[in-house]
Amino acid sequence: MRCFIAVDIPERVKKEVMRATERARRSHRDLKWVEEENLHITLKFLGEVEKEKIEKVKRVLDMITRAEAPFNLTTSDFGTFPKRGALRVFWLGIEGDLEEIKRLQERIDRELLKIGFDKEDREFTPHLTLARAKRYSRERVSLEDLDLDSVSGRSFRINEVILYESILRPEGPLYRKISVFKLRGR
């Protein structure tokens, strides 16, 4: 099964993000927009994982979340990957307790390396992916082309880490929670 590890954001923040991007979603249908229920901050993409290995991942996440405390994040500005030229990924930045989320992500990466997962080769940049350029799109969109309302400064608390299954469907992915791990450190 195809899996990833993430932290979720509150429904109120998801709704505000959807409102802030509403006009851009209508005018740029050539982008593949992330559905409201699928907005999250990815900590680690695992790819295809055998069922037997899922139990090992759960044990690792349980161990890590026992030691890590809840933390606060805040929405920031919109951005794109790459920073210049036609966008491939459109995202909303995250501020707040960045040291905590980065430490959590690094610990997950380090512990999963011990059970056979690859280490991330890029520096972790916490963000909410909002849209991706479709592979064969002719439209060249930049951040300046998008009609957006600000959604900066929306604070929220992260209390848990979630192991998700990603089910790919023609109408878009379905994310199913496999396990939820409360952050229990102090």
TrEMBL record:
A motif (HXTX 2) lies at residues 127-130. The active site is at H40 (proton donor), H127 (proton acceptor). The keyword Hydrolase applies. A motif (HXTX 1) lies at residues 40-43. InterPro entries: Cyclic_Pdiesterase (IPR009097), Phosphoesterase_HXTX (IPR014051), RNA_CPDase (IPR004175). Residues 7-91, 99-175 form the Phosphoesterase HXTX domain. It is an enzyme of class 3 (hydrolase). Its EC number is 3.1.4.58. Pfam families: LigT_PEase. It comes from the Bacteria. The keyword Isomerase does not apply. Keywords: Hydrolase. It catalyses: a 3'-end 2',3'-cyclophospho-ribonucleotide-RNA + H2O = a 3'-end 2'-phospho-ribonucleotide-RNA + H(+). GO terms for molecular function: 2',3'-cyclic-nucleotide 3'-phosphodiesterase activity; RNA 2',3'-cyclic 3'-phosphodiesterase activity. Hydrolyzes RNA 2',3'-cyclic phosphodiester to an RNA 2'-phosphomonoester. Belongs to the 2H phosphoesterase superfamily. ThpR family. This is RNA 2',3'-cyclic phosphodiesterase. It comes from candidate division WOR-3 bacterium. The lineage of its organism: Bacteria, Bacteria division WOR-3.
